[in-house]
Design goal:
The structure is a homodimer. Chain A is α/β, with parallel strands linked by helices. Chain A contains ten helices and twelve strands. In chain A, the strands form three sheets. An eight-stranded mixed sheet of chain A has the order 1-4-6-5-9-10-11-12, with helices on both faces. The first copy, chain A, has a two-stranded antiparallel ribbon with strand order 2-3. In chain A, strands 7-8 form a two-stranded antiparallel sheet. Chains A, B: It is an enzyme of class 2 (transferase).
């Protein structure tokens, strides 16, 4: 395996822009960090865009340069997988607002040559999609064979199909939703308040000092609970104690689930920027595809020739099956081609990232059948 | 209405103890703040103990002296209500570890004449119950006509029936559980970490300075989401914006649900001690009635002559119906008399505190039928 295969082709584009934003402002230049796998076919018909989730990155199928961990979706993307560099030209870009090389609050503002921090414009899911479209123009990719995403990646996939219907042949939306509900917003707001309550946050201007690690860790812990099912937590941890025979009658991590959550919080702050967490959760909370189309979700897909595949998991309570079904109803009402399956898994929302032969079969079948 | 009727009989007992604690230590003296309503009958057979929830207090049916708000359960307790001072001698005591007058981390340690802070012993639900038993001894109440509680109050009611079966004629357990699950523990741990991440917490020794209000507010916000159902949040707030026509594209509270949660967090810190929050959540996480009885829940109720009434709400995802059913199965296995009903409500866990004629009918019928 060559260096490039193992680490992917880590690339970076500095696009002149300007990128017009839903909030009214614009961004120029637009930095986009991305990876590609495979080769664009002569007719350009084999491009697959993969969209990542809230805290994901462009390292979908190759080693993460900072953590040394394998790509986050090697179960779906790679040799012999449903999305295969032998057949597809695979693009995965770090979303706008994130912190892995694309423009975000930690980027330098060209005007002040200091990090944007909270002067970075508030962005939307559609803004992320527009930035990805600029990247594809830059790469010479016209029409996508497929756009594929789970969780926030699924929101981008839906937004792609609604914003650039002529550029999307197939759209795969996994464990996702067309809008954030009040409960989704509430959990994100807790996370944002946890970050902003940390005195080290300093109104976002912490880049010369220590980051608000404690606040961000609490935010991650709260969010992490929503990624797992109650049954999954019980199966994995139950009430088992952490390396002890008896309760400590203190406030250390007595239970394994406490220790696990603390670890999730602490390890997260090493790889993620707190301001990016604020901006991306805000973009997700703002997401309501129906609202962008006159209040009727079906309008987002009217006359679309895109073929859609939706997958939900029965124990996902963050974006439950009912939300996928709502999208399918809208697709049906719009006359768009849609397949939908609810898969069974004990692992809640996180199931889309875990080993799921059924998920792989569904995606593989959908991508091949539509070819 | 007299002063005493409006404000209840605010009372305070300083009991010599010692109170032996599950953690191995003991407490002496034991301070208990409580209220009573009605009069103990000559045969002593009309006493009802009401146990409050995590952030509740003794002001069950009379004005809260600090907030000026009416009692927290006037729908259930009062003239013409299922628990009626005209018929019952009603006792409600602030739980051990709390901050409304009973011994807790904010109390003065008699040895140092400073607040205990984190040197207060870690307590259990059973310790709270033992303290209540000491109070009842002090009040001359032998056997309870009923012990009644919702949420953590229900845990105490179950613990009462298991610890002092001969003192409990009837036991009413509403929206509660016989153990904290991994998910329950996880949410509490997020709250504790939010408090402890606040630099103002100072290892608990903040009583001469400002309290860790920001951390406690975040803890309350996270917990509050678990008290409401997804459907209830959608009905109450949906994606409605807060006093604006359009999104702000900033980080103020754009959505009504954000504003509501922030208010819940901020108003909570005015009435609650952060260290008490740590201690009481810990007691709840430690609660597993089966574990205290050789790992078999039915053992907790073996040979019990107490009559039980369990009520759950269909949208309560904090202590879902399955947890009540588990208790009922154990009661059946132990040969104890148990009635059980799942009520329908859109309001999630909080339903037990809200207007519910059905709940009132169930409790009223149970208390009268068993008389």
């Amino acid at each position: 395996m060559s260096h490039d295969q193992r680490f992917g082709l880590q690339r970076h584009a500095r696009l002149p822009g300007p990128l017009r934003l839903d909030g009214g402002g614009s961004l120029s230049p637009v930095e986009i960090a991305y990876e590609t796998y495979g080769t664009l076919s002569p007719d350009g018909g084999n491009a697959v865009l993969i969209c990542h989730a809230l805290t994901g990155d462009q390292h979908v199928a190759s080693v993460h340069p900072r953590t040394g961990k394998p790509g986050w979706w090697t179960r779906m993307v790679g040799e012999g997988r449903p999305i295969d560099p032998a057949r597809h030209f695979i693009v995965c870009a770090n979303v706008l607002g994130s912190c892995m090389g694309s423009s975000g609050p930690a980027s330098l503002d060209p005007l002040t040559v200091k990090p944007f921090a909270m002067s970075f414009p508030v962005i939307t899911i559609r803004d992320m999609v527009r930035a990805q479209a600029m990247l594809l123009d830059h790469l010479g990719v016209g029409k996508l064979a497929a756009v594929v995403g789970g969780s926030m990646g699924g929101m981008q996939a839906l937004s792609w199909a609604a914003t650039y219907p002529e550029r999307v042949a197939r759209c795969v939306v996994i464990a996702s939703t067309a809008r954030h509900t009040a409960q989704n917003i509430a959990f994100h707001e807790v996370g944002r308040q946890a970050v902003m309550a940390d005195p080290k946050w300093q109104g976002g201007a912490y880049y010369d000092d220590e980051p608000p690690a404690a606040g961000l860790a609490v935010a991650r812990m709260a969010a992490h609970i929503t990624y797992l099912s109650e049954a999954g937590l019980t199966e994995k941890f139950g009430r088992r104690l952490q390396g002890r025979d008896a309760k400590s009658f203190g406030f250390d991590a007595d239970f394994q689930v406490e220790s696990y959550l603390r670890h999730q919080g602490i390890s997260f702050v090493d790889r993620f920027d707190a301001n990016s967490y604020l901006y991306i959760t805000r973009a997700m909370d703002y997401f309501d595809l129906a609202e962008e189309h006159g209040g009727r979700l079906a309008n987002a897909f009217k006359g679309s020739a895109t073929r859609f595949c939706l997958v939900s998991f029965d124990t996902d309570w963050l974006y439950p099956t009912a939300e996928s079904r709502r999208v399918v109803h809208a697709l049906n009402a719009a006359g768009a081609a849609a397949s939908f399956v609810e898969l069974s898994s004990p692992y809640g929302h996180d199931a889309f990232l875990l080993d799921s032969p059924e998920l792989n079969r569904v995606v593989d079948g959908f991508l091949k059948a539509a070819a």
